[in-house]
Amino acid sequence: VKAADDRRSRLLPAILLAVVASGFPACGNDAPGVRVVGEDGLDLPLRAASAEERTEFFAGDAAFGLPFRAPDGLGPLYIRTNCESCHEEGVRGPGTVQKMALVSPDGVTPAPDQSALPYGHTVRPLMTGAATTPLTPPASGWPAGTELKVTIRMPPSVLGRGYLEAIDATEIERLEHEQATRTDGIRGRINRVTYQSEANPDRSFHQYQPGQPGLVGRFGLKARIATLDEFAADAFQGDMGVTSPLRPTELANPQGLVDDGKQGIDVDIDTLNLVARYMRYIEIPTRNPAAATTQARAAFDQAGCGTCHVPSLRTRDDYPISYLAGIDAPVYSDLLLHDMGSEFADGLEDGGALSSEWRTAPLIGLRFQRNYLHDGRAKTVAEAIALHGGPGSQAADSAARFAALPDADRADLIAFVESL
Ligand code: HEC
Ligand code: HEC
To answer: From the CB of 153, is ligand 1 less than 6 Å away?
Structure first.
């Protein structure tokens, strides 16, 4: 939901209080006489959300849309000034992130020596305050025999992300085991990740400690983070240069700057947790039942899409948002990493993911996207499916089976996927 007006202030907590106090409608979009919030109603709160949860949702949404400025702690280096600029109304774009990596001449294998990129793999082109040197792809200076690979990451939508967080880890492990016995080359695996933040004082969603290993990665294009609060902290820090109690330090940068226009930690824990709650409370957009015909579902099965894009997964019984607990979450993903072949390689290893491994994209709200796949290289769903068939891709057989379907079945399948 876009903020009703451009709320700017140095005092973020005060804004949030004002937003809560200004009484965003605490009743459902389906309640009679209540205006649907947001022009096209994309990021709406969970249908079952209570009045209190809706209030949190709208306060979190306001923080998600709030543009930061230098006095609010933006920078010293940053990519965009607010979450919305890359996840507009919870969906994808318009902002993107550029990544850079040194790779061997095959364009796939990360080069052993990445020392020419001492400040990491993310391009951070914009600056505040004392910063005068942005982080951009170097023009030269890497070892002979290696190449600099610059790639784009499109922001995934954040719709329905509470459902993804709620999925029982044992479900994802079950799928990993089942796929390990397949003979058709589909072999997804869990990205086991380490919790890389300070502990969250709000212990209701998890009690992870700094450095805790072995978590099931779920979020990010390579499933590199386990929870939504940690992702929010990572995004504030990495995309906006905004520090929080979970990620209290500014990232390394060429000038060695350790602070910005706001001394110390830039957002408080309540703001961070509100943003995480907003994402937990976003509903999966209503799907068009007319597209889910028997033929369309049969074609989806026949082409083997559902092996990776698993239609639904069970959530854990003790997930703190009660109506997301113990349900079948219709996420169309196994949350596993799959090798999508050399044409998908970006030279980066997020956590345990390899250069050409990607998380099965959840098929949620696809009709609101204008491009598909991690870098937006596909302009239509049909093109996205065809590109699953590249050399070395685990989904090659599925893409071939799709191509072999009768025209009518292909059209039904695409209409179905676009309705999800
Ligand atoms: C400059 C663009 C940009 C900004 C600003 C940005 N994001 Fe993102 N977001 C991305 C990209 C790109 C990814 C994929 C990152 C990856 O694969 O590691 C992503 C991924 C995510 C995900 C994971 C979704 C999933 O399906 O796994 C969440 C959650 C998220 N962002 C939340 C936020 C929040 C909260 C903010 C603001 C604090 C924010 N983002 C700001 C670009 C952005
Ligand atoms: C081996 C597992 C696997 C199979 C089988 C598979 N996919 Fe995918 N799919 C993926 C992965 C992994 C991604 C993410 C790739 C990326 O981000 O570049 C993806 C991405 C997509 C996307 C893009 C979504 C977005 O948000 O950009 C669509 C659409 C899609 N798949 C549809 C299908 C359909 C339809 C089928 C059956 C014909 C299918 N897939 C079969 C693993 C699979």
So the answer is: yes
Q: Looking at ligand 1, which atom is closest to the CA of residue 81?
A: 5
- AA identity, residue 386: A
Under the banding of pLDDT at 50, 70 and 90, the label for residue 101 is very high
In short, whether 308's Cβ falls inside 6 Å of ligand 2 is yes
- pLDDT at 14 (0 to 100): 44
Cβ atoms of residues 99 and 348 within 8 Å: yes
Q: Is 338 in the pocket of ligand 2 (CB under 6 A)?
A: yes
Which residue has tokens 């209080």?
Answer: 17
Is any ligand 2 atom within 6 A of the Cβ of residue 305?
yes
Find all residues with CB under 8 Å of 183, minimum gap 6, and list them: none
Q: With bands split at pLDDT 50, 70 and 90, how would you rate the model's confidence at 1?
A: low
Q: What is the pLDDT of residues 17-32, one digit of tens each?
A: 444 433 333 333 333 3
Q: Is residue 332 within 6 Å of ligand 2 at its C-beta? A: no
Closest ligand, as measured to the CA of 345: 2
| 108 backbone dihedrals φ, ψ, rounded to 5° | -115, -50
Residue-wise pLDDT tens digits, 109-127: 999 999 999 999 999 999 9
| Mean of pLDDT over the chain | 91
pLDDT digits (tens, 9 = 90+) for 123-145: 999 999 999 999 999 999 999 99
* Contact criterion met (CB below 8 Å) for 15 and 60: no
Burial profile 46-83: b = 16 or more Cβ within 10 angstroms, e = fewer: beebeeebbbbbbbbbbbbbbbbbbebbbbbbbbbbbb
CA distance 390 to 396: 6
Q: What number does the ligand 1 atom closest to the CA of 236 have?
A: 38
